[in-house]
Amino acid sequence: MSPGRLATALPSDVVRIVTDSVTEPFWQAAKQRRLVAPRCGDCGTFRLPPTPFCPECQSTAVDWPRLSGRATVYSFAVVHGYPGLPDLTLVPVVVELPDAPGARLVTNVVGVEPADVRIGLALAVDFHPIADGWLLPVFRVAIEEV
Fold first, then answer.
1. 7 Cβ partners below 8 Å, 6+ apart?
2. In which element (H, E) is residue 136 found?
């Protein structure tokens, strides 16, 4: 990898999603540039990815609170190249969301030198356009980290 190549997201036309009644609220919020997470309406447990039943109490009651968009890197990888896009550099991450305890989100860090990504790095949500008019939550290094 050449120095100066920043991590990016996949091109918009490569990413497609399928929604259902369980995931639709997440994607509709993202389309409005809001990050949300499903929280059990009975016991308050957060869960990502969204599931039809709470893993703690099996309730189907769910609400979707808006999150601050802050996150920290829990785990990450650096991917050099993608089929048909050999010059692409991706940094897929698992992030912890401080205002959704116990929930982790698989996403990408963008706009950063891959060598600068580390466990515990503070991030802030951004939204990347994808196919069919949807927006994909991605993360950038938080301003206080720069």
1. 78, 89, 90, 91, 108, 109, 110, 111, 112, 113, 114, 117
2. strand 135-141
- Mean pLDDT, residues 82-96: 94
CA distances from 94 to 109, 117, 120 (A): 10, 12, 11
CA distance 12 to 107: 15
Stretch among 26-30, 53-57, 83-87, 120-124 having the lowest mean pLDDT = 83-87
Q: In whole angstroms, what is the distance from residue 77 CA to residue 97 CA? A: 18
Q: Which of 93, 81, 80, 87 is nearest to 141 (CA)?
A: 93
Contacts of 48 by beta carbon, 8 Å cutoff, 6+ apart: 37, 38, 97, 100, 103, 104, 105
SS3 120: coil
Q: Are 92 and 107 in contact (CB under 8 A)?
A: yes
Query: Among 70, 69, 61, 118, which residue's Cα sits nearest to residue 91?
Result: 118
Structure confidence by residue, pLDDT tens digits, 130-142: 999 999 999 999 9
pLDDT, mean over the chain: 94
